[in-house]
Amino acid sequence: MSKTWFVTGASSGFGRELAALLLQRGDRVAATVRKADALQDLAAEHGERLWVAILDVTDGAGVRKVIDRAFAELRRIDVVVSNAGYALLGAAEEVGDAQIERQIDTNLLGSIQVARAAIPHLRQQGGGRIIQISSSVGQAAYPTLGVYAATKWGVEGFFEGTIPEVAPFGIEVTLVEPGASRTNFATSSADAADALKVYDQTPAGDFRRMVASAGLAMFPGDPRKVASAIIASADQSPAPKRLTLGSDAYALVHAALTERLAALEAQKALAHSTDVGA
């Protein structure tokens, strides 16, 4: 049975792959982009099954206006995919205030605003699915990706609290945690601070050199396979809370959670000792 999807950031990366695959299989897609001509080829091929709107997710009022219009015109939207985002690269000392604010406005506040605008409509129609594109870096982090990681950790924290709030209304949520995939995310969809020489012989410099020399080996994920897995997850019931995609994502998240759990276990006695009466 065909579905109607709402996808932000559909002009490139996972958003573009999702829109193309969904249209190919006969679904209806409401896609948001920042440039009017970004999906002209898909519109020419699929006609009225593709609904397009211009949206900058840093504009909270604009987010609500576009989502309200999409639900009004399409009557029902089964799956809302919050995908718009980009990566800011740089050590904490290197990134500028404006860069940090834009990163948070786009990745964190933008994702929260999309969810907040969609939830009333999903509730009123009796349920639906929200798929939030997070990252494996939402469970761990690399040097020079601290601010980017902060936005993804923030998104995951937001949904940890929101998921039980909306569950009684039949709204389910999946956090997608992909690794590095062969999209344009790391090039046209990234912002980089000017590197300071003092970091050359630190983990930040080591990470930058690794990225520069690794080539495609640094990006094992197949964007189309990732998009296909995301689409398939919408048919799973109950919805998976998290969807970790990519061998690098699995390795990073597994190592981070294992280390975190071991550290927690080592502090068990200390934690209990601080209770009243202990």
Automatic annotation (TrEMBL):
Gene3D superfamilies xrefs: NAD(P)-binding Rossmann-like Domain
UniProt keyword annotation of Disulfide bond present: no
Keywords: Oxidoreductase
Family (UniProt): Belongs to the short-chain dehydrogenases/reductases (SDR) family.
The protein's name: NAD(P)-dependent dehydrogenase (Short-subunit alcohol dehydrogenase family)
Organism in which the protein naturally occurs: Labrys wisconsinensis
